[in-house]
Specification:
- With about 230 residues, this protein is of the alpha/beta class.
- The protein has two domains: about 150 residues, HAD superfamily/HAD-like (Rossmann fold); about 55 residues, Orthogonal Bundle (DNA polymerase, domain 1).
- About 40% of the residues lie in helices and about 10% in strands.
- Strands 3-2-1-4-5-6 form a six-stranded parallel sheet, with no helix packed on it.
- Helix 1 packs across helix 2 and helix 2 packs across helix 3.
- About 35% of the residues are buried.
- GO terms for molecular function: hydrolase activity.
- Keywords: Hydrolase.
- It comes from Bradyrhizobium shewense.
Length: about 230
């Protein structure tokens, strides 16, 4: 067993958005999931059941359903994002404790997401975290190449002048931490609260014991608060 990387040297804190900065059991992403199925069904003129199978296949193979739809069916990213992110954000509630924990971290705080800036803005506004981040790298900045593609992380690091050996990455999907760990980042997998019901694919819940996962937490606020000296 290798010794997990620590945080003493970290000066850049990188966070995924969905199911990371808010808890999995809110199931906000479930709304997006339903709209993706609707989009795929309408675009390909297939039944919702057929669309659902294609959606999950593309998600697993391409990193996002959108990338699969763009690659295989010529879908416009703008049309796709506008449709699937038209959701009700009201289930999200302000989280001042998380904001305080993030504010106490020394260094820059960035968001790296397969979603869009518009979606990021809506989520952060509901959480009360909009002032706590120094930048966002979204799917458009990634030229529509989603995590876990290696070039996406490389572009993110270059665009924001991040030294990966001095950075930490927080994610809810273990496979999205593989490349960051290879690049030298300290990695944290944010998992669902075991007492709450969540809507997840089986493979999305895997990887807690993977060598590229340095730390695992089901309480991001508590974990971050524990990193800052009082």
């Amino acid at each position: 067993m290798t010794t997990p990387r620590t945080f003493a040297h970290v000066d850049t804190w990188v966070f995924d958005l969905d199911n990371t900065l808010y808890p999995h059991h809110v199931n906000l992403w479930q709304q997006v999931d339903v709209r993706i199925t609707e989009f795929v069904s309408s675009w390909l003129q297939v039944t919702p059941a057929e669309a659902r199978k294609l959606q999950k296949d593309y998600y697993l193979r391409f990193g996002t359903t959108m990338r699969g739809m763009m690659t295989l069916h010529g879908v416009s990213a703008d049309d796709y994002l506008a449709y699937v992110h038209k959701i009700d954000h009201s289930p999200l509630e302000p989280n001042p404790a998380l904001g305080e924990a993030i504010a106490k971290l020394s260094g820059r705080k960035l968001i790296l997401t397969n979603g869009s800036v518009d979606h990021v803005d809506a989520v952060l506004a509901r959480l009360g975290l909009a002032t706590h981040f120094d930048g966002v790298f979204d799917i458009i900045a990634a030229q529509f190449e989603p995590k876990p593609a290696a070039q996406t992380y490389q572009k993110f690091l270059a665009d924001h002048a991040v030294d990966p050996t001095r950075a930490a990455m927080f994610e809810d999907l273990a496979r999205n931490l593989t490349v960051p760990h290879q690049l030298g980042m300290t990695t944290v997998l944010v998992v669902p609260d075991g007492t709450k019901e969540v809507v997840r694919e089986d493979w999305e819940l895997e990887g807690r014991d993977a060598a590229h996962v340095d730390h695992v937490t089901d309480d991001l606020t508590g974990f971050l608060a524990g990193l800052s000296p009082e």
